[in-house]
User: Fold this.
Amino acid sequence: MEKMTSPYKWGMVIDLDRCTGCGACVVACQAENNVGICDKKEISEGRGMHWLRIERFWVGEYPDVRVRFLPVMCQHCHDAPCEPVCPVYASYHNPDGLNGQVYNRCVGTRYCGNNCPYAVRVFNFYPHQWPEPLDSQLSPDITVRTRGVMEKCSFCIQRIRRAKEEAKEERRLVRDGEVQPACAQTCPSEAMTFGNLADPRSRVARLSRSPRRFQLLENLGTHPSVYYLKGGGREHV
Amino acid sequence: MSEKQFHESNELKVSGEFNETHRTQRTLQTPKTLQTNKINDDLLSSLRPPTLRWYLLALLLGAVVAWGLAAFTWQLTHGMYVTGKNRPVMWGFYITGFVFWVGLSHSGTMVSSILRLSMANWRRPILRAAEAMTVFCITVAGMFPLIHLGRNWTFFYMIPYPNQRGLWPNFRSALLWDMTAITVYIIGSSLFLYLGLLPDLAVARERSSGWRRKMYAFLAMGWRGTAHEWSVYHRASTLMAALIIPVAVSVHSIVAWDFAVTVVPGWHSTIFPPYFVIGAILSGVAAVITLMIVIRKAFHLEEYLTPLHFDNMGKLLLVISLLWTYAYFVEVQTTWYAHEPIEWEVFSFMSGTYTTQLLIMLLSNSLLPIVCLCFRRLRRSIGVMLVLSLLVNVGMFIERFLIIVPSLSHKNMPFVWGSYSPSWVEISVNLAALAGFVLLFTLFAKFFPIVAVSDVRELEARRGRVTMGRAGVPSIAEED
Assistant:
């Protein structure tokens, strides 16, 4: 069998000092990835479909209150708890180090969702509709998921594929900064950096070596591909 | 004498015996055959044509099952949102039901095979009911994982069938282990039940007519009761009893691994497999006791299921209840002592939010059985045993729920903590599962001897009286 090696190991660095919690990434992700449109009821029931959420924390007591924001999407773990538990290989590890999700294969046991410590997997509880004119906005690059299927952030795999194909035609590797997911592209304060962690000179690799870096729930040994840079916590309300 | 001749002569003897039986039935000559006939009559009484009461019961149960099917259809056509599940609580009442029914299924085979291997003679009248219960419980349990799928119609993706795309299920997933274990258990326990049923089917064949006779004749596979057949039968049932125990233990260990192999706080615990097996036997033994009481009442088997049987089962329940208490204590104690923040959060959320349920569980699984079952008078009281055995299973259902739901509600990321309450669909399906189980059991009791006739008769045949000097001692002959 051909050994599955890849020159890429996609990763992201999120600088919490830069994040303003504006939510542009959440909207961009929804628009890019055909994510279902949920109403108030669905969200309040805990059945929202965001692939990316901004966690907001209040720190301290009044009047010395600070707010902290933490954008959380699929961490694309290298030892992902969601992958081995899927009975049908719907969640799998791809050679680029991404956690893939095959919607057609998913039977909806929701075991992956339970076992994801970051709780970033969302399940299509409802059959989702795209009322006009939003239906014209659906991206042809991505499957529209039916109800009963698990889905999650893919690091905009369709963009990565396109960039890789273009690079292959020109017989080169994808250049640093050539591809970025919708959230990173949209972030007004440029808090998110995306790139190839396998290339030590890439921007994302350099930032991931910062002394401010940390990962979510590092103690679980999931080895996420997303690094966070600690914020200073100066954000007074 | 050649083997063939030997069999023929045996056959003659057997048919002669049957003729004799038929004759004595009319003339009522010897007390011995009279007793045999009485046993046959008593124990096969469940096969008599159903009464109006039976039809009413079946109708009621059928209605509940139909309601559950309607609820499931509703879920199938609308989507999983009709359940109470959400993010992060993606498993709820269905999986609770699944674990509960797998637990119940343990009783039967475990109780019956352990008692068979340890040659406990009081087991004989309850064997069949316990074994049948196992088969029906595991069948009901096996449906829950399929009901709970987001896309139920693609369930066959989980079966390893050859296909053009070369897709294979993921054997690293605990759910696949589950499927494998449950399939093995369904097949194994059905065989176990069928094997024990063989001689009784032959008895039923001799005593029935019409389509029933045809059915029994087909199912009895030409059983004649020759010495050779009996010896093979005894060897096979001992072997099956020994083989089914590891299967039963593995099934519930695997169900426990569904939880234990994850990284969910409160689930990820090494004690889960033995703890689940103990819990399974606890609910199983309790269910067998409930069943004994119901059968005793329904088929008037007071002579065969005596307070002595309840006394023995009570002792068994007491031991298992002590074991369960120990396992639960160990699990909670390590959580409490380590005080690991996330684990402790799950535990405090569970004990804070579900205090009533927790107390009911502790009371009915541990405190009440341990206190009550210490007294022989209470063990021999049918009423007390009925209440206790029902309570244990209520407690066990709560236990499964308290393991599954609180852990998911308060996982590692506090921002997505949630809560869960079952919807009417989930409750209906769970009720239908219960009704379906009882319905299957009632039907089984109408079509097959629910008390092991040949086992009871074997015991009667072995029973004797030994005189030592002037004292007479009741004795039971055993083969070496």
User: Anything to note?
Assistant: Chain B touches chain A at residues 79-81, 85-91, 145, 148-152, 154-155, 157-158, 167-170, 172-176, 179, 258, 261-264, 408, 411-413, 415-416, 418 (CB under 8 Å). Chain B has one domain: 52-159+166-460.
